């Protein structure tokens, strides 16, 4: 929580372990929001970032998977090309009849070569 307090001006994020098969500038991490809060029937746009090391020059497929039913993420899959900026905007929405409670969105980053990595973030659904 201290990291969130220090990063308040920039927004809290959670990051994955390194992917790509290396532990240095030849790898990447995925950064996601620390938490998303939605009311039933609401949609928010959030940023999923691919933080590349200086020498990581590969395409990465990002796949988003939601635990449970009632919350969706669109797009559920996208490819971030090596020459593209690493930020992807995704829409997280809760159905009008979604169960109140916490859901988890798992983001998996799979490079065209090398090891994948993943990170998840909570989506808290409340009554409107």
Secondary structure: elements and pairs:
Blueprint: H1 2-6, E1 13-15, E2 28-33, E3 36-39, E4 43-52, E5 60-66, E6 71-74, E7 77-80, E8 87-94, E9 101-111, E10 117-126
Parallel strand pairs: 3-10
Antiparallel strand pairs: 1-2, 2-4, 4-8, 5-7, 5-9, 6-8, 9-10
Keywords:
1 helix; disordered N terminus; five-stranded antiparallel beta sheet; 10 strands; elongated
How would you explain this protein's 3D organization?
The chain is mostly beta strands and 128 residues long. It has 1 helix and 10 strands. The protein has one helix at residues 2-6, and strands at 13-15, 28-33, 36-39, 43-52, 60-66, 71-74, 77-80, 87-94, 101-111, 117-126. Strands 1-2-4-8-6 form a 5-stranded antiparallel beta sheet, with no helix packed on it. A hairpin with a 5-residue loop joins strand 9 (101-111) and strand 10. Mean pLDDT is 86; it is low at 1-10.
Query: Beta-strand level of the residues, as a percent range?
Result: over 45%
Q: Mind telling me the C-alpha Rg?
A: 15 Å
| Mean of all residue-level pLDDT scores | 86
| Helix and strand sequence | HEEEEEEEEEE
How would you sum up this structure in a few lines?
By secondary structure, the protein is mainly β.
């Amino acid at each position: 929580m201290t990291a969130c307090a220090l990063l308040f001006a920039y927004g809290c994020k959670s990051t994955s372990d390194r992917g790509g098969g290396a532990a240095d500038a030849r790898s990447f991490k995925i950064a996601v929001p620390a938490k998303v809060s939605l009311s039933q029937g609401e949609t928010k746009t959030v940023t999923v970032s691919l933080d590349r090391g200086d020498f990581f020059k590969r395409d990465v497929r990002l796949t988003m998977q939601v635990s449970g039913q009632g919350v969706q993420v669109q797009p559920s899959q996208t490819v971030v090309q090596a020459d593209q900026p690493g930020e992807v905007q995704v829409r997280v929405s809760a159905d009008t009849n979604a169960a109140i409670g916490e859901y988890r969105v798992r983001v998996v980053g799979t490079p065209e070569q090398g090891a994948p990595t993943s990170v998840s973030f909570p989506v808290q659904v409340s009554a409107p």
